[in-house]
TrEMBL record, chain A:
Pfam families, alphabetized: ABC_tran, OB_MalK
GO molecular function annotation: ABC-type transporter activity; ATP binding; ATP hydrolysis activity
A biological-process GO annotation: carbohydrate transport
Source lineage: Bacteria, Bacillati, Actinomycetota, Thermoleophilia, Solirubrobacterales
Keywords assigned: ATP-binding, Cell membrane, Membrane, Nucleotide-binding, Translocase, Transport
Source organism of the structure: Solirubrobacter phytolaccae
Name of the protein this chain belongs to: ABC transporter ATP-binding protein
Entries under InterPro entries matching the protein: AAA+_ATPase, ABC_transporter-like_ATP-bd, ABC_transporter-like_CS, ABC_transpr_MalK-like, ABC_transpr_MalK/UgpC-like, Mo/tungstate-bd_C_term_dom, NA-bd_OB-fold, OB_MalK-like
Domain ABC transporter, residue spans: 4-235
UniProt keyword Translocase present: yes
GO annotations of cellular component type: ATP-binding cassette (ABC) transporter complex, substrate-binding subunit-containing
Automatic annotation (TrEMBL), chain B:
Bilayer-spanning residue ranges: 36-54, 95-120, 132-154, 166-186, 207-232, 265-286
Protein name: Carbohydrate ABC transporter permease
Domain ABC transmembrane type-1 span(s) in chain numbering: 95-286
Main location per the UniProt record: membrane
Length: 354, 301
């Protein structure tokens, strides 16, 4: 295992499309590093540059102590799991997993041993003689993982490996990937556009947008203090309430006199956008807070999400399942808990002190 | 990109371009006697020449010239077929030459065409569309148009009356077709297979050879059969470029039987029948892929 370093990566395709503007990442040895971003933001392109399937226009990529620019994919000692698995259809499960070892001309006994080990870890033993097309999606995914791990590569690259699975299986496989990564102590770069997956898996998350890095940090850091409005909109389900407010006497005051605890580092009179998580608001029948009207509610079992219309806009409010408000009911909304991050409306970057 | 998804059925057989069997046609009662009558007439008209030729090949020489013609009441003989294969027969050499020429030209076209098609399918090339169109456009040219220049060229290179010359011409004619048809098949195989193999430790070419190639075999077979049939049937170049009875191919050898004072029609018919058999057999063997190949090569998604 080794660390992966991406320095000032820039990638433009021959047709002029710029897929990666400028990207620098430092992925530590043994880390599960998640790249998160919307479709078309350059995640796959970055992975393919690391793998050597695509040549970077400029910048430097290091794997371990080695600068890999100009090295062929086969010389980089990296394993990649593709979104559509790319299992060789003409080979059995066993031969699929043995393929990288055969490429390296390993002795037959070692091949047998490593494949058996991988099959045991991934519970693929009953399927070894089958062809990939005779497997379910989850099983195919496990074979792809098996093929990646038999070789003990320097790093794993995973390109949205779970997108093709149904929700339940995806949660299972997510746990399995994490478990496997920890057991192997593997350096893993994991690409996804699903923020739940990113939060659940990542040691660190890099949020990307249009070929640029928006934010880099541990999942809770990213969740609590998104660095930009883009990240704020992307992380969390439902996402943050972005509320236009002005710094007044020790408070952020929004339309309708909604008062939000002010974070540090702002000046009086400054106009900001406060990013308040749904759990940072609370609804009550009457009393303190601003007036609002319940527009809709989503009962999720353990909690209920209320959408409340106030003068300052539509708010998502997360309440315990015991909270009972009906649609169209007039309620009071107020802010509770810690001070939220505040953003500058023009630069869209966080301006409050952490 | 939806093309990355491997369709269930396709991956099942592990074969590019394999199509699902067409739905079984339901039994249908023939509507009317008129329909049957029309179809019978149609069939007789269509098959008459073939049947007539087969009969001629099987009749004794005196029965061939019988007036009125003996359609049913003749005693069949295999003498003419025996003559076709006898060592002093003028057409037997032609068949041997045809096998050699068709075989080698197909081999050359396939060996050159498959990698070319792979390159066109996988790499970004300058003006790729124009190049492909140019390649295809060489097929628009009727052989008669180029036969004179080729003749002159071959005379200078002393390739006239040689099988090598014919092999080269047929290979050149089959190459564009091979490239186009194979490109269709290769486009069907996701590039990810090769990329995965490259990451697994193989070079680009090894990845092609080990992963894509096995999936292409049915496609290659279909393409090769097309090329084979073209070379086997080709007449214009054959008759213009070769006059030597030792090196000419079957079509011109059979044509050579006609002329002179007496024509052995039995031998002509038997030769023609023999000539038709290999094509029918091959076409039958790969019929499923032929249809798939033609549609794949022609229809861009
Ligand atoms: N071979 C190519 N030629 C030209 N442009 C390309 C090529 N591959 C990707 N692009 C463009 O580069 C941009 C980034 O693509 P990329 O595949 O990296 O996105 P992504 O983040 O992986 O998206 P997704 O979540 O949809 O997979 C896109 O705008 C895409 O259209
Ligand atoms: Mg992608």
């Amino acid at each position: 295992m080794a660390e992966v370093l991406v320095k000032k990566l820039h990638k433009a395709f021959p047709d002029g499309t710029v897929a990666v503007e400028e990207l620098s990442l430092e992925i530590n040895d043994g880390e599960l590093f998640v790249m998160l971003g919307p479709s078309g933001c350059g995640k796959t392109t970055t992975l393919r540059c690391i793998a050597g399937l695509e040549e970077e226009t400029s910048g430097e990529i290091r794997i371990g102590d080695e600068v890999v620019s100009g090295l062929r994919p086969s010389q980089r000692d990296i394993a990649m799991v593709f979104q559509f698995y790319a299992l060789y259809p003409h080979l059995s499960v066993k031969e699929n997993m043995a393929f990288p070892l055969r490429a390296a001309n390993r002795p037959e006994s070692e091949v047998e041993e490593r494949v058996a080990e991988a099959a045991r870890m991934l519970q693929l033993e009953p399927y070894l003689t089958r062809k990939p097309s005779k497997l379910s999606g989850g099983e195919q995914q496990r074979v792809a993982l098996g093929r990646a791990m038999v070789r003990h590569p320097k790093a794993f690259l995973m390109d949205e490996p779970l997108t093709n699975l149904d929700a339940e299986l995806r949660a299972d496989m997510r746990a399995e990937v994490k478990h496997l990564q920890q057991r192997l102590g593997a350096t893993m770069v994991y690409v996804t556009h699903d923020q739940t997956e990113a939060m659940a898996l990542g040691d660190r998350i890099a949020i990307m947008n249009k070929g640029n890095l928006e934010q880099l940090g541990a999942p809770m850091e990213v969740y609590n203090r998104p660095a930009t409005l883009f990240a704020a909109r992307f992380i969390g389900s439902p996402p943050m309430n972005l509320i236009e407010a002005e710094v007044t006497n020790g408070h952020l005051t929004a339309a309708g006199d909604l008062r939000i605890t002010a974070p540090e580092g702002l000046q009086r009179g400054q106009k900001v956008i406060a990013g308040v998580r749904p759990e940072g608001l609370t609804v009550s029948e009457s009393g303190e807070g601003v007036k609002g009207r319940v527009v809709s509610k989503e009962a999720l079992g353990d909690e209920t999400i209320f959408v409340v219309e106030c003068e300052a806009g539509l708010f998502h409010v997360r309440m315990p399942a015991t909270a009972r408000f009906e649609e169209e009911q007039v309620v009071a909304v107020r802010h509770v808990g810690a001070a939220p991050p505040a953003y500058d409306p023009t630069s869209e970057k966080v301006v409050s002190a952490p | 990109m939806a093309t990355h998804i491997q369709p269930e059925g396709l991956a099942d057989k592990g074969i590019a371009g394999e199509t699902v069997d067409p739905p079984v046609r339901r039994e249908r009662k023939f509507g009317s006697g008129v329909e049957i009558l029309l179809l019978t007439i149609f069939m007789v008209v269509m098959l008459f020449p073939v049947i007539w030729m087969l009969e001629t090949a099987l009749k004794e020489t005196k029965d061939i010239y019988a007036v009125p013609a003996k359609v049913f009441s003749f005693s069949p003989t295999l003498d003419h077929f025996q003559n076709v294969f006898s060592s002093d027969s003028p057409v037997f050499k032609g068949f041997v030459n045809s096998v050699i020429v068709a075989g080698f030209s197909t081999l050359i076209a396939t060996v050159l065409g498959v990698p070319a098609a792979w390159a066109y399918s996988r790499f970004t090339l300058k003006a790729k569309k124009d190049q492909l169109f140019f390649i295809l456009s060489t097929r628009f040219m009727p052989p008669v148009v180029v036969v004179i220049p080729v003749f002159l060229m071959f005379r200078d290179l002393s390739l006239l009356d040689t099988r090598l010359g014919l092999v080269l011409v047929y290979a050149a004619f089959n190459l564009p077709f091979t490239i186009w048809m194979m490109k269709g098949f290769i486009d069907e195989v996701p590039a990810e297979y090769e990329e995965a193999a490259m990451l697994d430790g193989f070079s680009r070419f090894e990845a092609f050879w080990r992963v894509t190639m096995p999936l292409l075999i049915p496609g290659i077979a279909a393409t090769a059969v097309f090329a084979l049939i073209f070379s086997w049937n080709e007449f214009v170049f054959s008759i213009f470029l070769i006059t030597d009875p030792d090196t000419r191919t079957a079509p011109s050898a059979i044509a050579g039987l006609i002329g002179g004072t007496t024509i052995d029609w039995g031998l002509v018919a038997a030769s023609a029948m023999t000539f038709a058999v290999p094509v029918l057999v091959f076409a039958f063997l790969v019929r499923k892929h032929l249809v798939a190949g033609v549609t794949l090569g022609a229809v861009r998604r």
